[in-house]
Amino acid sequence: MPDISREIIDIVNSKDEIIGKSTLREAHEKGLLHRAVHVWVFNPKGELLMVKRSKNMFIAPLHWGGAMGEHLKAGEDYESAAIRGLREELEIRKPKLKKLVKKKLIDGGKGKYCNSEFVQLFKCKHNGKMKFSRMEIADGGFYSIDEIRKAVKSESMPFASMFLDFFDWYMKNKKGK
User: Fold this and answer.
1) Most distant CA pair in the chain: distance in Å?
2) So what's the pLDDT on residue 63?
């Protein structure tokens, strides 16, 4: 897991244009708008890989979300960050990504950190081996969309708020097709 005090990221304006640089820690402490990616990984049966964030995560520890989330490094584009994140967190190499939606998401969160991000959601299909980065992922597995919908409705699992926002979008948009 990167040292958030040293990781340099781009700060952006409300049009997602770069206006400066900051450390990841400072961006989250001050609520500075920056960039991130999420990638939802589906298996051939159409099940979505869900992961439980590790206790080490500074935002939403031990909450469930889509397979991978990554901050863009300074100068990096969304697709490159998605490819890097899949490699680092799940050891998935050469994914075929499909853009789903980009959203501006602001989540005050709990504690001293705030998410204020443009987040590009991608999806990919994967039918091979994966290895979870235990620094970032405590648990995970594939679940049907219906199983996830039921868990969200019953609140039987703690979900990261950004995942819930994207899941709501996905369900309203015919499963992102």
Assistant:
1) 43
2) 83
- Summarize pLDDT for 57-95 with one digit per residue, the tens: 767 767 888 888 899 999 999 999 999 999 998 999 999
Provide the token pair at 7: 């990781």
* φ, ψ of residue 82 in degrees (nearest 5): -65, -45
The secondary structure element, H or E, covering residue 127 is none
Q: What is the pTM of this model?
A: 0.89
Of the candidates 49, 19, 47, 51, the residue with the CA atom closest to the CA atom of residue 32:
19
Residues 6+ apart with CB under 8 A from 96: 124, 125
Structural domain boundaries in the chain: 8-176
Specify the amino acid at residue 95. P
**Considering the domain 8-176, what is its CATH architecture?**
Alpha-Beta Complex (3.90)
